[in-house]
Design a protein that fits this description.
Blueprint: E1 6-8, E2 29-33, H1 37-51, E3 56-60, H2 63-75, E4 80-86, E5 88-89, E6 92-93, H3 94-104, E7 109-114, H4 122-133, E8 139-142, H5 150-166, E9 174-178, H6 184-194, E10 199-203, H7 207-216, E11 223-225, E12 231-233, H8 237-241, E13 253-260, H9 264-275, E14 280-284, H10 310-324, E15 327-330, E16 334-340, E17 343-348, E18 353-361, E19 365-366, H11 373-376, E20 383-385, E21 399-403, H12 407-416, E22 422-427, H13 438-446, E23 450-454, E24 456-462, E25 469-474, E26 480-484, E27 487-490, E28 495-496, H14 521-527, E29 541-543, H15 555-574
Parallel strand pairs: 2-3, 2-4, 4-7, 7-8, 9-10, 13-14, 13-18, 14-15, 18-29, 20-27, 21-22, 21-27, 22-23
Antiparallel strand pairs: 1-3, 5-6, 9-11, 11-12, 16-17, 17-18, 19-28, 24-25, 25-26
C-alpha cells in the first residue's frame, strides 16, 4: 500500500498483516481523520481501547492523506466499516471528505464528529441536516469525553450494527441454502423477512454454500441453518416461526386482548396492553413489522436522531412486548371474527380459536400486485414486492428499478443506491412531491446514481429464469420503451387486509375499516351507546394503523393509534 498509517492490531487476535487467526480474513477498518492532534488523541484512544480486538483502527491527520489512503485500501480490496471525520478539516467541512467515501466504500458508515458545545445550535443542526439530506454523511457523533464515554460508544456501535446488517454480518444470522433463487427458497426468505430475522441466501452450488452445507450436514433443500447449528430441511412456515411464536389451540383460549396484525400499530397495542396487565395475544399471518419492516432507515421517528431501520424497530418492539408478557402467534391467519355471548371469537386457519374481551384489528395494508404476468412469474428471481432489504446485496453493480411514489419507495431507492450501479425510480405521478416527504426527495435528487422517471409506469418485462428487461410507458405520450433491468422492486398502492372480516364490520369503498365518528347512524344506534374513538361497528373490536379509514400512513401515527386503541380497551372493560 502506498500510504502509511497508524494501525492498531492486538497480537492476541491478529497477526502483523491484520488477518484474524480465527477466520483467516482481514479485519475491517475504522478510519478516523482529524487535523487537531489533541482531538484526534481522544478519538484514537476510545477506538483502540474499545474496538481494536475486532477492527483495525486507522488514524490520519488530514483529508488529503485520508483520501489517498482510502483509495489505496479500496484498490487492495480491504473492508472499511466506518470513517469518522472532524467537523472541520484544514478550514473545509469534514462532510466534504465523507462525501468522497461513498464512491470508494458504499457501505461504510460516515460519521461527522462534533463538539459538545455545538450540540443544539441552529447552525450545526442545519449543517448536519443538510449533509445527511444531500447524502454526504450518514450520522454524527459527539466527540468523546474522558472515559468511560458510553454515549460516544453508543453512537459508534449503532453505526457499526448498521454496517454489519448491510454486510449480512450481524450476529445470529440465519443461512438459507437453496438450489435456485426462486420457488420455495424465495418463500422461505420472505418468511424470515416478515419475521424480521437476520438472514442471508446462498446457492447450494456456490463455494460458500457448499462450505455451509458440509459444515451443517444439510441433505435436502431448501434448508435453513440456524445460528446455533440446527438445520431445518424444507421447513414449513409454521416451523420457521416456531422459535419465536406459539401455536393457538382449538380450545377457545381466553384472553383479555387479542391483536390481529404485527405491524407498528399492532406491536404498539401489544406493548401498551401487556404493560398494563392485560393478558395479550398478537396474531399475524407473517411476522412483525408490517410494511415498516421494509424501510431501511426511518429518520423522522421520534427519539431516533440517527434514524432506525423498520426491521430493527420491529425487533425492539417485539422484545419489549414479550418482556411485558405478550404472547405471539406467527404464520397463523385469522379467518373469522364474531361477537358471541362469552366475548369476541377469532378463528384461525390452523384450527385455533381464541376468545377475547376486546380485539384490535391492525392487519395493515400490502402493496398491490402489478398484474403483468411475465413479471409475476419472476417473483424472487429479480422481481420483489417491498424493499426486500435482504436482496439488496444481490444487485451490486447492476441496473435496478423501483416502482412507487411514497416514502417507503424513497427509502428503498436510497438504500439500493449503495449497492447498485444505477437505480431508477418509476413514479406514476407528475412529481415526487405528490406523495413523498421532502427529507427524502432532496437526497434522491442529489445522489448521482439515482434517476427519477415521473409520469411513467411499468407495463411489461421478462427474462429467462431471472429478470433482464422491463417495458416502460410514458403516460403523457403513450410511448413504450424497453430497458435492461436486473431487478425490480415494487411498492405501489395499498390494499387493506380486510377480506376475511364479516360484513358487519363497516368499511369504506376501498375496504378500509370505519371507526368511531365515521360509523353509520345504523351502527351507532345498534351500540346503545356512543362508539369509542377507534371502535368499529362491532362493539369491543377496534381498528388501528393503516387498515383504518382516514389513517395517516406513517409509522409514528400507527404507533400512536395502537396506544389510543388500548385506551379504548380500558374504557370498554370498565363499562
Amino acid at each position: 500500500m502506498g500510504t502509511a498509517f497508524r494501525s492498531y492490531v492486538p497480537a492476541r487476535v491478529e497477526d502483523d498483516r491484520g488477518t484474524s487467526r480465527r477466520t483467516g480474513v482481514s479485519s475491517p477498518l475504522l478510519v478516523a481523520v482529524d487535523d487537531d492532534p489533541d482531538l484526534m488523541r481522544d478519538v484514537e484512544r476510545e477506538l483502540v481501547n474499545r474496538y481494536a480486538s475486532d477492527y483495525r483502527v486507522c488514524c490520519l491527520s488530514s483529508a488529503r492523506e485520508a483520501l489517498a489512503t482510502l483509495e489505496d485500501l479500496a484498490a487492495a480490496g480491504e473492508q472499511v466499516a466506518m470513517v469518522l471525520a472532524g467537523e472541520e478539516l484544514a478550514g473545509a467541512p469534514g462532510s466534504a471528505l465523507l462525501a468522497e467515501v461513498r464512491a470508494l466504500f458504499p457501505h461504510a458508515q460516515r460519521v461527522l464528529l462534533i463538539e459538545w458545545g455545538r450540540l443544539g445550535t441552529a447552525e450545526t443542526g442545519d449543517a448536519i441536516f443538510e449533509a445527511i439530506s444531500s447524502g454526504r454523511i450518514d450520522h454524527y457523533a459527539l466527540r468523546p469525553a474522558p472515559p468511560p464515554d458510553e454515549q460516544f460508544h453508543q453512537a459508534i456501535s449503532t453505526s457499526l450494527l448498521r454496517w454489519a446488517d448491510a454486510q449480512r454480518r450481524a450476529p445470529y444470522t440465519i443461512d438459507v441454502i437453496g438450489e435456485t433463487w426462486s420457488g420455495r427458497a424465495y418463500e422461505m426468505r420472505a418468511v424470515l423477512e416478515r419475521c424480521a430475522m437476520p438472514h442471508r441466501f446462498l446457492l447450494a452450488g456456490s463455494d460458500e454454500g457448499r462450505a455451509v452445507v458440509t459444515r451443517a450436514g444439510a441433505r435436502r433443500f431448501p434448508a435453513m441453518v440456524m445460528p446455533d447449528g440446527r438445520v431445518l430441511e424444507d421447513p414449513t412456515d409454521l416451523e420457521i416461526a416456531a422459535a419465536s411464536g406459539t401455536a393457538v389451540t382449538p380450545d377457545r383460549e381466553q384472553y383479555e386482548l387479542v391483536i390481529v396484525g404485527g405491524g407498528p400499530a399492532g406491536l404498539s397495542a401489544a406493548v401498551y396492553g401487556a404493560s398494563e396487565g392485560l393478558r395479550t395475544l398478537l396474531i399475524d399471518s407473517g411476522g412483525i413489522g408490517g410494511q415498516a419492516r421494509s424501510s431501511s432507515s426511518i429518520r423522522n421517528y421520534l427519539g431516533f436522531p440517527r434514524g432506525i431501520s423498520g426491521a430493527d424497530l420491529a425487533r425492539r418492539a417485539y422484545q419489549q412486548a414479550w418482556v411485558f408478557g405478550a404472547r405471539f402467534a406467527f404464520m397463523q391467519t385469522a379467518t373469522h371474527l364474531a361477537r358471541e355471548r362469552d366475548g369476541v371469537v377469532v378463528r384461525l386457519n390452523t384450527g385455533g380459536v381464541v376468545v377475547a374481551r376486546a380485539v384490535v384489528l391492525a392487519t395493515g395494508a400490502s402493496y398491490r400486485r402489478l398484474g403483468v404476468e411475465p413479471l409475476e412469474a419472476l417473483r424472487g428471481a429479480g422481481v420483489f414486492y417491498g424493499a426486500a432489504a435482504s436482496e439488496a446485496p444481490l444487485v451490486a453493480g447492476q441496473d435496478v428499478y423501483v416502482v412507487g411514489g411514497a416514502n417507503s419507495a424513497g427509502q428503498a431507492v436510497l438504500h439500493l443506491a449503495r449497492y447498485a450501479k444505477r437505480v431508477t425510480l418509476v413514479v406514476r405521478a407528475a412529481s415526487l412531491a405528490a406523495g413523498m416527504s421532502h427529507y427524502l426527495i432532496r437526497p434522491i435528487e442529489e445522489t448521482p446514481n439515482i434517476d427519477v422517471r415521473t409520469g411513467t409506469e411499468v407495463v411489461g418485462g421478462g427474462g429467462d429464469g431471472w429478470l433482464d428487461h422491463l417495458v416502460l410507458r410514458d403516460r403523457a405520450s403513450d410511448e413504450l420503451e424497453r430497458v435492461g433491468a436486473y431487478a425490480l422492486f415494487l411498492m405501489i398502492g395499498a390494499r387493506p387486509h380486510t377480506d376475511w372480516l364479516p360484513g358487519t364490520v363497516e368499511q369504506d369503498e376501498d375496504g378500509f375499516i370505519l371507526t368511531g365518528p365515521d360509523l353509520s347512524d345504523a351502527a351507532v344506534r345498534a351500540f346503545g351507546r356512543r362508539p369509542l374513538t377507534l371502535e368499529t361497528s362491532i362493539p369491543g373490536v377496534f381498528a388501528a394503523g393503516d387498515v383504518r379509514h382516514g389513517s395517516v400512513k406513517r409509522v409514528a401515527s400507527a404507533v400512536g393509534a395502537g396506544s389510543i386503541a388500548i385506551q379504548g380497551v380500558h374504557r370498554l372493560l370498565t363499562i
